[in-house]
Predict the structure of NAD(P)-dependent dehydrogenase (Short-subunit alcohol dehydrogenase family).
Amino acid sequence: MKIDNSISAVVTGGASGLGRASAEALAAAGVKVAIFDMNEEGGEEVARAIGGVFCKVDITSEASVVAGYAKAREVNGQERIVVHCAMVTGGGKTISFDKETGGYKRNPTEMIARAAEGIFTASYRIASHGALGMANAEPLNEDGERGCIIMTSSAASQDGQVGQVAYGGGKGAVNSMVLPLARDLMDLGIRVNAILPGIFATPPMLAVKDKAPAIFDGLSASVPFPKRLGKPEEFGSLVLELSRNTYFNGQCVRLDGAIRMPPK
């Protein structure tokens, strides 16, 4: 896909972290960007900085997502790139010791359901509504490409740690969605890929650096090379390449400095 000012994109979670880096990378390449996020202050700030549009969107709400796409298309036209970074999840060990009762307790099923809705179901919701809009648009090139969808999974989908049953399972479901989605959409010329980031210097991780520098340093040292956390702009760079390169399709790409975390 030729990346220029004729192309529009939707980026979920674009108010901060990996979503913000994706929005900035696309905007720097000339793309018109709509940011979907619940953080109005942060989303509006990023939108102003990149010349984009902010849409307050709750990814767990069908009506909110539909309204967000409608607003984005009214301002920027039909999106040809969808980058889905936003999520809602939970955590906790399956079985853990309860100091209050002196016995063991189970992580409630509702925690898994919340992650399933906020990761897997929300990913389908964002991807399918984007694909429906693209399906009714004219092809962009001689390959018949109409657009691309880039989802955010995680290295934890293949390398989940203690307490990551809900998160790792939800992201694993995203991985499993990629190839069937790509095949569902192949006749429409819509590509689907996912990025599996490792440990990145996003706001939550930078908060760890402030509160527990030893833990932060240990995480950095655990990356084979380079021995640091990933930079959000490195994620944004891959988003740009996955958008440009029409032969990238049906792939789950790890971006993690070769980290493979042992269970702890």
Observations:
- The first helix runs from residue 17 to 28.
- The mean pLDDT is 95.
